[in-house]
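Weekly structure sync, notes
Attendees: PL, DS, HV (note-taker this week)

Item 1: Starvation-inducible DNA-binding protein
DS walked through the input record. Source organism listed as Roseivivax halotolerans. Sequence as pasted into the shared doc:
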Amino acid sequence: MTETAQSLSTDANTQIAEALNQCVAETVVATMLAQNFHWNVTGMAFGPLHALFQEIYEDHFTGQDDLAERIRALDMHAEGTLAGMLKRSKVNEAEGAPDDKAMIKQLKDAQETLAETLAGAGEIAAKHGDTLTEDLCIERGRTHEKFAWMLRAHLQ
Ligand SMILES: [Fe+2]
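Item 1 (cont.): predicted structure, written out as tokens:
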């Protein structure tokens, strides 16, 4: 049965919001990764990489807002601190000053992790009949798989 934010049980809302908060956390950390790399990338591919990293962080900035606002529509608390996000996230921040190839690899790995996390959150939403959250997770997952492919293509 299809549920709405209002008809879902508190238990369902809690489980869905927990999964979505992990999606928000990882999207925020990946936003920072992409912006960090947008600023610091060097080398002969500077132009296209600088532009691609910008495309990614702009997408993620919108994505984190959509995910967090879905949590609020479910009447749950959206994680709003960087410390909390770093604790929840399976995507890690960059360390030191990676070269262009290492940047692409780390951001590709982040996109693949995010695609998995979004797929998992979508499954939890589907289990509870929350098709609107499931739809958002599918849309975000597809975007992360697209970016994973675009980044992976640089390494082949
Ligand atoms: Fe810029």
